[in-house]
Amino acid sequence: MKKRKDPVAKYPGNEWLAKKLKTLKFEATVPFAHGVIRGAMANPVGIQPASAFARINGDENPLSHDSRQLEKLILALLHLWNDTAVNYDMGRRFPQALTADPCTREDERTFNDEIIDLADGFLEGFCLAGIPKRYHSEACEKYFLDIVNKAKLCLNWYDNPEEFAKEYPETSLRLEVLRNYLAMIEETMVWLHLYAQHAAGDGHLFSGGVRSVLHEGVG
């Protein structure tokens, strides 16, 4: 019997993922998908990939889609999951989550929107499983809230671009501010993962339930 070749041998990239999500009519964006996977991995309970993929899938019924197209998407997300795991394990850079290189981006509004999606996805992915009360870490809670508050500030700039422009009059400066916030958010994701795993391994208590709605006022 001839061996069947896998339709996706590695993560095919953000452009491919964006087209596939659109083809399957999923509402999730590329940054949101990256964020959910990162957040699910950061949770010390050990969230399974299927739970993360279901969140990316949203309210869509997977049985309503073409099975071959859905298979390709799932394989691509599995490769992205593995690539992200390597970052957490080896301290390497995350797979690029934004659909354009933030170092060369000129569209500040799209950039800001994608940063919010990335952070929102991470927070939702992290909260896919409750944290047992026997775990507690003030550091983990602080890092979680740091991501929330940075994302809230980006959201405020997105909703009130005139305030952003008043505070940072030059476009190049606004882009630099957003790049710095993206870097801080991504770094905080790694620290949350490290401290959460340490807290779980040491048997410290982790309060969990640190949920915050991004669309509330800036904290």
Could you list some keywords that capture this structure?
mainly alpha, 8 helices, globular
Care to describe what's here?
Helices cover 62% and strands 1% of the residues. It has helices at residues 14-23, 30-42, 49-57, 67-90, 108-126, 138-159, 161-167, 171-202; one strand at residues 135-136.
What is the CA–CA distance across the termini?
61 Å
Tell me the radius of gyration: 18 Å
Number of DSSP helical runs: 8
Residue-averaged pLDDT: 84
Strand percent estimate = under 5%
Weakly predicted, low-confidence segments: 204-219
In terms of structural class, how would the helical and strand content be classed?
A: mainly alpha
SSE series:
HHHHHEHHH
What's the story with the biggest beta sheet? none
Shape from CA axes? globular
Instruction: Report helical residue fraction.
Output: 55-70%
Number of strands: 1
